[in-house]
Design goal:
Elements (H helix, E strand, L loop, with lengths): L5 H14 L4 E10 L11 E2 L1 E14 L5 E6 L3 E6 L12 H12 L7 E7 L9 H16 L6 H16 L6 H8 L5 E5 L4 E5 L5 E7 L8 H18 L9 H4 L7 H25 L3 H17 L6 H11 L4 E6 L7 E7 L3 H16 L4 E5 L6 E2 L2 H4 L3
Parallel strand pairs: 4-6
Antiparallel strand pairs: 1-3, 1-13, 2-7, 3-6, 4-5, 7-8, 9-11, 9-12, 10-11
The protein binds alpha-D-galactopyranose.
The site of alpha-D-galactopyranose has 10 residues, from α5.
Length: 388
């Protein structure tokens, strides 16, 4: 038996304070993507791993007809009416509403419930805090309703929550890795087939997550712009998705589609890099994996244009720090986190060097976390609640 994580202890305590003992407690992790960025919505390949920070949901049935109540330790309290058809998409509880609303739409009636939420996944840092919340909640609601847990289907439902309820046109990567991750492994995911293959980190290496502490603002439209540029390129090339395009075909895109050409070049090359990275992991080749991560950053910065000054600065600093084998921005981009592959023996020196140089360059205090690849979503056994 393992002790509940700090987030689990807090979610359970919050539930007890508000309503007494929970009936179900579930957790789902955030993620860091090692390589394969902005490829998921092009039916391509990604290589993320779940991280040790998770979001925990403690749930119990409510007696009060159609009203469910949710308390987040960060955002406060919200009441949801099961007859409600829509929600203000800027409200934090839109993720909670979306999951229960779409489950209802699948004929999975969850009744009314009380729900407490705690998280250690930094919010808005490109570590997939929203997918962790959606997956943890879906896992708990399915258990409460006595339904089976189908990770890939649930991930698709949570992607629909983002696309249809919250209005964020994101891909499948974040909910899928949060639902399906295998402990101690990253996963090569084929986003067309939803095929998930575990890959170990090279021996003697760790993944360091580098938080610039900058956060995204008003960039959801930039994400949608990138997505539609990819769709236009695929359309011109007469392929159903850029996954099916080759680099030499991309170069034939006409001058009026010059921006689309650069975006597509990133996607097609990034897919190749991701497959090569998975192969390098299989061959235990840290150097090749690291150089592919460096190349990915250049492509995201120059062709896809989703990096930013803080991300570029921390990646450059990381690459010059002791023990670094490769580094790049991770997730949607513009702000948030970078990821670095580091020799385990040098992890302490690496962390100090990055923090010191980043402070000197930007005046900001970066957080650096070393995370083992964590397991995907799970129900926390009742016996474990009491172990903490
Ligand atoms: C965000 C989205 C993902 C993916 C990444 C970029 O995290 O939620 O679906 O597109 O950006 O790789």
């Amino acid at each position: 038996m393992t002790n509940p994580t700090p987030a689990a202890q807090r979610a359970i305590a919050l539930h007890r304070e508000s309503w007494g003992e929970p009936a179900v407690v579930s957790r789902a992790p955030g993620r860091v993507n090692l390589i394969g960025e902005h490829t998921d919505y092009n039916d391509g390949y990604v290589l993320p791993m779940a991280i040790e920070f998770d979001t925990v949901v403690a749930l119990s049935p409510a007696r009060s007809g159609r009203r469910s109540t949710v308390i987040s330790e960060i955002f406060g309290k919200a009441t949801l009416d099961s007859k409600r058809e829509s929600i203000d998409t800027t409200h934090w509880a839109s993720y909670v509403f979306g999951v229960s609303h779409l489950l209802d739409g699948h004929g999975i009636s969850t009744g009314s419930w009380n729900c407490s939420i705690a998280t250690d996944v930094p919010i808005g840092a490109s570590l997939s805090s929203s997918a962790a919340l959606e997956i943890a909640l879906a896992r708990a609601l399915l258990r409460l309703a006595g339904e089976s847990w189908e990770p890939a289907e649930t991930a698709q439902l949570c992607q629909r929550v983002e696309n249809e309820v919250v209005g964020m046109p994101c891909g499948i990567m974040d909910p899928l890795i949060s639902a399906c991750a295998i402990a101690d492994h990253a996963s090569l995911i084929d986003c067309r087939l939803l095929d998930v293959r575990p890959r170990r980190l090279p021996d003697g290496t760790v993944m360091a997550i580098l938080d610039t502490t900058t956060r995204r603002e008003l960039v959801d439209s930039a994400y949608a712009d990138r997505r539609s540029a990819c769709a236009r390129a695929a359309n011109w090339l007469e392929v159903s998705a850029l996954r099916d395009a080759q680099l030499d075909e991309i170069e034939r895109l006409p001058e009026e589609l010059a921006t689309e050409r650069r975006r597509a070049r990133h996607v097609v090359a990034e897919n190749e890099r991701t497959l090569e990275a998975a192969q390098a992991m299989e061959e235990n080749d840290a150097e090749v994996l690291g150089s592919l991560m460096n190349a990915s950053h250049v492509s995201l910065r120059d062709d896809y244009e989703v990096s930013g000054p803080a991300l570029d600065a921390i990646v450059e600093i990381a690459q010059a720090s002791p023990g670094c084998i490769g580094a790049r921005m991770t997730g949607g981009g513009f702000a948030g986190c970078a990821v670095a592959l580091v020799t385990a023996d040098a992890a302490g020196a690496f962390t100090n060097a990055v923090q010191e140089s980043y402070r000197a360059t930007s005046g900001l205090d970066a957080s650096v976390w070393l995370s083992r690849p964590a397991a995907g979503a799970s129900i926390i056994d009742r016996a474990e609640w009491h172990a903490g």
